[in-house]
Amino acid sequence: MTMQSVPQIFSRKRRAARRARHLALRAADPQAQFLRAHMAAEIVDRLDFMQLTPALALVLDDAPDPLADLLAQRGSAIADMPLPDEELPYPRGGFDLIASLAQLDTVNDLPGALIHARAALAPGGLFIACLCGAGSLPSLRQILMVADGERPAARIHPQIDNLAASGLMGRAGFSRQVVDSHSLTVSYRSLERMLADLRAQGLTNVLADSPPPLTREAMARARAAFAEMADSEGRVTETFEILTLTGWR
């Protein structure tokens, strides 16, 4: 599949800008990265269950330190290379493990990205990817629909589900592929805190067709919708559906 034939759902330029902002915000407040910390722990737990210590691991993440540190503590060598363009062949290969955190949900050519990841593995190597899948951010989706009124804009990314991800893993040539998901819930006292969390963790909109900014009136409707959804303690619960893709070469 050529780059020209792939629908450009996501903007590479906006994705790069989001990455730079995420790195800056992460440096200012490392504790705000709860989602990636959860994904890193999920991957390490699976490796421990499989009693697997990969000799050479590549971590695909805007800020790979948490998972890389956990893997290094277990005896893995961590590849020192820039975050590759997932839609192109990797500049090097031979990895015993490729672990991807919160990256593949904004790739235009997801089938190609999986094929390139498999090709970069050593024979018998393992690929694990965690990403936000279908079912994520239902509360925010509802709030934004209320905010936009009669002319809703595309503000939340299209999301992949277990069945589609499993099919793509098979098409990419992985063996013994498994796709599963679980929910992570977080409660917020304000809409501003919810949006700040998404921004700090590099989870904001990078659609190629950028939606118009919310007007002052639309933000007022969004805050009212948030308040309407709040529980007796004034909190709104948001859900992140964590999709985990596992496959072997």
How is this fold's topology laid out?
Elements: H1 12-28, H2 34-50, E1 56-60, H3 65-73, E2 77-78, E3 95-101, H4 110-119, E4 121-132, H5 138-148, H6 162-171, E5 175-188, H7 191-200, H8 216-229, E6 236-248
Parallel strand pairs: 1-2, 1-3, 3-4
Antiparallel strand pairs: 4-6, 5-6
Mean pLDDT: 94
Distance between the termini: 21 Å
Low-pLDDT stretches are none
Class by alpha and beta content: alpha/beta
CATH topology: Rossmann fold
CATH H-level homologous superfamily name: Vaccinia Virus protein VP39
Can you describe this structure?
This is Methyltransferase domain-containing protein. Keywords: Methyltransferase, Transferase. This protein has 249 residues and is of the alpha/beta class. It has helices at 12-28, 34-50, 65-73, 110-119, 138-148, 162-171, 191-200, 216-229; strands at 56-60, 77-78, 95-101, 121-132, 175-188, 236-248. It has a single domain, classed as Vaccinia Virus protein VP39 (Rossmann fold, 3-Layer(aba) Sandwich). It has eight helices and six strands; from the N terminus they run H-H-E-H-E-E-H-E-H-H-E-H-H-E. A six-stranded mixed beta sheet has the order 2-1-3-4-6-5, with helices on both faces. Helix 2 (34-50) runs parallel beside helix 3 and helix 5 (138-148) crosses helix 8 (216-229). It is globular. The two termini are 21 Å apart.
Keywords:
about 250 residues, alpha/beta, Rossmann fold, 8 helices, about 40% helix, globular, transferase
Short description:
By secondary structure, the protein is an alpha/beta fold.
